[in-house]
Write a structure and sequence with these properties.
This protein folds into 2 domains: 46 residues, no CATH class; 206 residues, Rossmann fold (3-Layer(aba) Sandwich). A 7-stranded mixed sheet has the order 3-2-1-4-5-7-6, sandwiched between helices. It contains 8 helices and 7 strands, in the order H-H-H-E-H-E-H-E-H-E-H-E-H-E-E. The N and C termini lie far apart (45 Å). The radius of gyration is 18 Å and the shape is globular. With 255 residues, it is of the alpha/beta class. Helix 4 packs parallel to helix 5. Bound molecules: S-adenosylmethionine. S-adenosylmethionine binds next to helix 4, strand 2 and helix 6.
Amino acid sequence: MTESASPYAMETNSSGDQLRFRERLNDMYRTSPLPLEHLVCNFGLYTRSSVLVKTLVINEIYELILPVPGIIIEFGTWWGQNLVMFENLRAIYEPFNKTRKIVGFDTFEGYSSFSSKDRPGQVITEGGYAATPDYPAYLRELLAVHEGNNVLGHLRNRHEIVKGDVVQTAPKYFADHPETVVALAYFDLALYEPTKACLKAIRPHLVPGSVILLDEFTWAEAPGEAIAFKELFKGSEYTIRRSRYTAERAIVTIK
Ligand SMILES: C[S@@+](CC[C@H](N)C(=O)[O-])C[C@H]1O[C@@H](n2cnc3c(N)ncnc32)[C@H](O)[C@@H]1O
């Protein structure tokens, strides 16, 4: 699908010329002369800097949590690329850490239920960022395949995909797993109510050094995330700074 045929607008600051180069890059990817087995090992040929930066941020936060016990969570996974990167960074940095479970939460149905604290616009739209109906099963298998490919791959089930509205699923997850320690929580829900519900759910499970990544903390189009965070984390029990790779991601470390 070309980007112009996408069902909703992806976030972009690109000029018309840049969008045309992006379209051309997509064409060159579609018609790549590389055989498939070479293509999957040379994905950097077609990765734009604005996409590569996401990988750098994931690596930045993974390095921060190496000394911290506990699991990795992403609230708002979409296609699950971050979860796959976490799986592969786990294999690189701590291949023998059997306890570093990776859990992703999403409805896979896109945005819905806006509150008065949200600001729906071009990107934050009803149903925006929906995956396909069978996608949770595909993502579970994809993660299992990566896990099988990595060190200790015979130890299975170190991922969990929780499908449903996080307002219900996040509190239920922690009620079912009260022993959980959260080393890292990646927030990318954009909206006020679900972000607040998840921050509330994880709060008793954070420890000194736990990291919360806020994907939309400084983005005026999605004020709900920052409002929810500031309401719940008043006081001085955390430090916050921008990512070294992009001013758009805020990294919170619990004191
Ligand atoms: C911007 S996308 C996430 C992108 C992803 N983190 C990435 O970096 O590729 C936001 C996601 O939040 C999910 N979402 C929004 N509200 C939700 C809710 N109440 N419960 C569960 N998922 C929700 C949407 O389905 C969507 O997949």
